[in-house]
Amino acid sequence: MSTITVSTAASPDNWSSWNFVLRLCAEQLRERRLALVVGAGVSQGFKLPNWEILTERICAACTAAVPPGDLTLEEKAEYIWANHCNRDDREFALLVRDALYAEYSFDLATLTSNSLLAAIGALVLPSRLGAVHQVVSFNFDEVLETYLGHLGFLVDTIVDVPCWATQGDVAIAHPHGLLPRSGPPRGKLVFTSASFGRVTGDITSAWHRELLAVMSSHFCLFVGLSGKDENLMSLAQRVQPQHASKENGFAYWGVRLAKPDDSRRHKWEERGIAQVPVSYSEIPDRLFSIRQAAGRL
């Protein structure tokens, strides 16, 4: 397997080829600078809702009916927070948690048979061939932690920053908060219009600095993310001009696995993240192949 050269990495045309991206990700894995950034698509096999369905569930579960009109999902969530939960962040977080896990299908058989989680586990596995140590999850759920913990990984879950340096096999950061199935909510939930307004583009916040540092120093692989999250998009826009890969002449600093007909392709590419067309069912095999390719380098 040949090494990526400056000339091939500088050409945007190469980045839609899986063979090229495979070599690049394998090299970054060997160098221990491949990071995963994951969204709701990772939890899809456990009957956990996407953003739209989660919002519908919290609206249906409360007594304060959302007024008719062309409200965004964040605006609907904020109305529930203000009028049903009386602006009580903890009460709102518990409402969201109940809606999040309302149909959650959890048992060890389901957990261990999920091919996408298995592929992520393969990338995280400590090895002389390299491993993913940094994961950024924009999910509220703890599916990934549960799975990796079951495999015997030492997982450091980060919900507040700044924090002590981690010592585990993998660090999973939850910048938008974490809602464990049992126990209290952790971190500050980012779900309403007001909460997004507070964090999006705030270069003074600790989370912004933390994510900027992680993403700027790693080649990032984006899985299960749509591009609707404006906090992530704002952050990606700031990463683009200062990413470490600029020294290597990379045309992009990250790759997103996306559906071939994805309508937000341009939005990601404008922020320095290449798009590799792939169906959802193909993603596990693509991730497994990165680990395998690292062994062939």
Tell me briefly what this model is.
The mean pLDDT is 92. The protein is an alpha/beta fold. The protein has helices at 6-9, 18-30, 51-61, 73-83, 89-100, 108-112, 115-124, 143-150, 193-199, 206-217, 230-239, 265-269, 283-296, and strands spanning 34-38, 134-137, 155-158, 170-173, 219-223, 254-258, 273-277.
Please provide a written account of the structure.
Helix content is 41%, strand content 11%. By secondary structure, the chain is of the alpha/beta class. It is globular and about 60 Å long. The model has no long low-confidence stretch (mean pLDDT 92). Helix 3 (51-61) packs parallel to helix 4 (73-83) and helix 10 (206-217) crosses helix 11 (230-239).
List keywords for this structure.
297 residues, alpha/beta, 7-stranded parallel sheet, 13 helices, 41% helix
Mean pLDDT: 92
Please tell me what the overall shape is: globular
H/I helix tally: 13
Order of secondary-structure elements: HHEHHHHHEHEEHHEHEHEH
Question: Biggest sheet, open or closed, and with what strands and sense?
Answer: 7 strands, parallel
Task: Order the strands across the largest sheet as they lie in space.
Answer: 3-4-2-1-5-6-7
**Total number of beta strands:** 7
Strand content: 5-15%
* Alpha carbon gyration radius: 19 Å
What percent of the residues sit in helical stretches (DSSP H or I)? 40-55%
Distance between the termini: 6 Å
Structural class: alpha/beta
Low-confidence stretches: none
